[in-house]
Structures are given as structure tokens and as C-alpha cells.
Amino acid sequence: MVHYSYLVNHIRRHIGPCGVAVSGGTDSTLLLRAAADALGERLLALSVVTPYTISREHDALRMWTESLGVRHIVLTLPLIDALRFNPENRCYLCKHAIMLAMCQRSREEGFSILIEGTNADDMPRDRPGMKALKELGIKSPLRGCGVTKQDVRRWLTIHGHPAAERQSNSCLLTRLPYGMEVRTADLARIETAENYLLDLGARYVRVRQRGDHADVEIDPESRAAFFCHDGYRGIVAKMEELGFMAATIVEELRRSC
Fold it and tell me: Within a domain: residue 177?
């Protein structure tokens, strides 16, 4: 079991003043806290907004950086041409583009090192974007110190941060089939649909677009509660209101993407 102080000391002694790439997920949330404890004001938080990132997470991230008193720069990037038709290597292409942008801005602000929140449980075969991190020379202190996802959630719980119970998420491109043209209107519709279900109380949600059809994934506990209140018809009606021709509540939960 890794101690939180070990991570803090590692950042203080072996990394020093740096930019911290943050996304609003649990790993980068914890990393920013550790970097702030290690470096005080000698750091900079950076995040990126694209047409396919989830705005709900950025709202929470803004509040977190403000509570820590950390300067936070938000970069806005358009959909790059390489992602226009949602290729199978989208994770690598996306990670390279957003990390390159943050690396460049970090250097412009006087921080030559950029760190990010890959943890020790993340495996390269499951995280194609890790190739981009290596190519750009970005450091991953959680992974380097052997910090697991369990450690991250435990430490966030100790610090009283609500992200401790947050489910893993992924960008909106994962809701579209490979090869489909990425349209802003489709991404906005998917995010609106997921926010509707989250506001109803679902813990885990994915709305995956298949043409004009929506496959709706909801965690079993939430799904049972919705069905007990005859929620199925209400969910389908909402999906149709948003422009889907039909919607299906599916059994499979693809938590990895």
C-alpha cells in the first residue's frame, strides 16, 4: 500500500514546479491535490475543452482548482481533421493533440515539465493514449509511484472529495461507432441525454448512437429503480424527444469506454 506522503514527497523532490494536466476525473483530481500539497503555488493546472469532452466534468474541475487556490488555464481546441470520421486510433490521436497543446502552453507559462494522472492499474493495451505520453515526454507520477485506482479513491475519500465515488468516464467520441462522421449536434444530443439520466439518479450511464437509434446503458441498481417507477417509457420518450428515432435499454455495461 502506497502512502499519500510518498507521492507528495516524490513530486516535491523529483519533479518540482510543473504543469498538471487535469480532466476532472478521479486520477487527475487526486494528482492535482498532491501537487498542490507538494509545491504550493509553484504549479499550473491545465485542461482542454473540445467538442467531445464532457462539460459536467469541467464544471466540477473548475470548482476544485478554485478550492485549492491553483491557477487554472483552460484551452479550447476544435475537432482535429484526423478525428473527423472517428477512427479506431482516436484515443491516441486525441491524447497526442491535447497533451501537445498543454505541453506548449505549460512551457510558455514557465513550466518545462507536464505531469498527468495515469495510475499503476492502467495498462498500455487498454490505454492507447499512453503512447502519446511517452512520445511527448510527459511524466505520470501516480504510475511511477505505484499508486492504484484503489489508492486514488481511498485518498479522495480521506480528503472528503466527492470524486471518490465518481464512476470512470470517457469522451463522447466513444458513444459513436468507428467510421461515423463526428457532428457537433450528435455529440450535444448524446450529452443532453446522459445528463438527463444522471439527473434522475443514475450512477453510470452511456448513450451510444447507432444511426438514429440510441442504445442506453444504465447501471443495474439504477435501472431497477427506474423500472420500478415505470421509468422505461419515460426514458424512451425522452430519447425520442431529443431526436432519436428509437431507444433500447441494453443489458451490457461497457465501463471501459
Answer: no
The phi, psi pair for 37, rounded to 5°, reads -65, -30
Q: Report the distance separating Cα 24 and Cα 96, nearest Å.
A: 18
User: Are residues 108 and 214 part of one domain?
Assistant: no
| Residue 57 lies inside a defined structural domain of this protein | yes
Q: Cα–Cα distance between 23 and 35 in angstroms, integer?
A: 15
pLDDT of residue 93: 97
For 87, 120, 133, the CA distances from 146, given in Å and listed in that order, are 32, 5, 17
Could you tell me which of 139, 132, 83 has the C-alpha nearest to residue 106? Answer: 139
76 and 138 part of one domain: yes
How far apart are alpha carbons 79 and 83 in whole angstroms?
7
Classify strands 205-210 and 213-218 as parallel, antiparallel or unpaired.
antiparallel
Q: How far apart are CA 132 and CA 120, in angstroms?
A: 17
Same domain, 146 and 32: yes
Task: Single out the residue in 106, 136, 165 at which a domain terminates.
Answer: 165
Any idea how long the chain is? 257
Question: Domain range for residue 226?
Answer: 183-250
pLDDT digits (tens, 9 = 90+) for 168-218: 788 999 999 999 999 999 999 999 999 999 988 888 899 999 999 999 998
